[in-house]
Amino acid sequence: MIQAHFAAMIGVGFVILAGCGERGEIIVPVSGTVRLDGAPMAAGEVGFITFQPRAGRAAIGKIDPSNGAFTLSTNEAGDGVLVGEHEVTVSVNATGAGGNPISLIPKKYQEFATSGLNVTIDGPTDSLIIELEGPLKRHVKTYDPAALGDDPGF
Amino acid sequence: MDKKNAFTLVELLVVIAIIGVLIALLLPAVQQAREAARRMSCTNNIKQLVLALHNYESSFLVFPTGRVGCDGACDPKSGPSTSGFVLMLPQIEQGALYDQFAPYGPGSAFPGNLPSTVLSQRPDAFVCPSSIMPPSVTLSGKEWATSSYAFCSGHYGPDQGIGAKVKWDNSGLFIYRDSRKISDATDGLSNLFVIGEVVDGDKPTSSNRWAIGSRLLDSLRSTRNPVNTLPGMGEVHKPYDHDLNAAFASRHPGGANFGFGDGSVKFIPETINLTVYRNLGRRDSGKVKSY
Q1: pTM
Q2: Is B217 exposed, middle or buried (0-12, 13-18, 19+ CB in 10 A)?
Q3: What pLDDT, on the 0 to 100 scale, is given for residue A19?
Q4: Buried/exposed B240-267: b ≥16 CB within 10 Å, e otherwise
């Protein structure tokens, strides 16, 4: 009789513990390369790539100015991106006149609505390729913020 | 043999075991209750600030400007960097503190010779109880009080560098130089962030001094990056030595509190769709903002 009570208690304990698991969202490490007109994008300025899932937190990665390489981060640096379908945007800006940005790649890639980039993430990868079409703006005149009279705030 | 009226050892052990399990379940819950209480207190702070904004609006028919003056890129050049939080001090019953700031208004340099004893004042309403940032930071030889809250300047952020879109042409209600009116919020005040939370206001990547308004930093943040993007992470702009992300963030697990223009304060989860979140920072997006 007492053994039966113990067994029941242990059973209830397991049921309670089972409720303490992780949430169902799976984040997998993802890195890759942005390619422009078929070659790794060497924009000369730092760019950013944003992955927006259907539901859940977006992931952002910094694009290497020399070879287009990026690593995505959702909550912590380099942790990756949620599994599933994503809309993707890419922005690469230089500091132009008045501190305003000059987009070095076609502006449509900056907005989810117009970028036309959709990626499905099934699992971890280190070789995701994002293909863009140029033209890439080169030899853009950039400005030093201090010379623009920008108040640095300190 | 007469039956003894007492508990057996096994019965006692079972009771102790059950009590042990219950305590084990309860203890972590108590810690959560403390955080929930801090969050509630934080919500109240934001509510008071939005109420103060509306009192200001009742007096002057506009909301306070995000930052009193402009800088080199717009006229008047080199205006004071005084933030809107200074302008609304009388509305949060800090009139005496406001009087100390008053001589450093438009047409004069800020902070000028305003002493650190004034700049390091930190009204309770500017501090979230969950905040772990130091109460002040020393910059340019002055000691500045940090704050847990910043105005929502709009949805333009580091993507716009330090250009017009993050200074006097951002999409929210609080910008450089100009004051905006309730009627400017054509999306409706109940669909628009006015105040959000900020962490690490003492760090150069996330400086947040309530007395100063500065693009991508102090008192003027944007919804470009997801909520709770930590300093230095996400999409950043690096005008000088530091990566600035202009993001709202909190120490509350899973999201951050935001004050809406209508005075409601809601906890926005980290998992909110980024497009919707960005639109919540815009006063005239014309978009549906359900989440």
Answers
A1: 0.89
A2: buried
A3: 46
A4: eebbbbbbbbbbbeebbbbbbbeeebbe
β-pairing, B255-260 with B136-139? unpaired
Q: Is A35 exposed, middle or buried (0-12, 13-18, 19+ CB in 10 A)?
A: middle
Q: How many other C-beta atoms lie within 10 A of the C-beta of residue A77?
A: 10
Chain B residue numbers touching A5 (CB-CB < 8 A) = 14
Into how many domains does chain B fold? 1
Put simply, whether B72 touches A (Cβ < 8 Å) is: yes
Tokens of B78: 């080199």
Cβ A103 vs Cβ A95: under 8 Å: no
Q: Are B121 and B115 in contact (CB under 8 A)?
A: no
- Cβ pair A148:B73 closer than 8 A: yes
The amino acid that residue A1 corresponds to is M
Domain that holds residue B119: 9-280
Q: Are B233 and A73 in contact (CB under 8 A)?
A: yes
Whether residue B3 lies inside any domain: the answer is: no
Residue B171 covered by a domain: yes
Q: What is the ipTM of this complex?
A: 0.86
Residues of A in contact with B163 (CB under 8 A): 96, 98-101
The answer to whether the beta carbons of residues A95 and A145 sit under 8 Å apart is yes
Determine, yes or no, domain membership for B270: yes
SS3 of B115, please?
Answer: coil
Per-residue pLDDT averaged across B87-114, rounded?
A: 88
- Is residue A15 pLDDT above 50, yes or no? no
Asked if B160 and A112 come within 8 Å (Cβ–Cβ), the reply is no
Structure tokens at B16: 């102790």
Q: What domains, with CATH codes, occur in chain A?
A: 25-134 (2.60.40.1120)
Per-residue pLDDT, averaged over B3-30, amounts to 88
Residue B289 lies in a domain: no
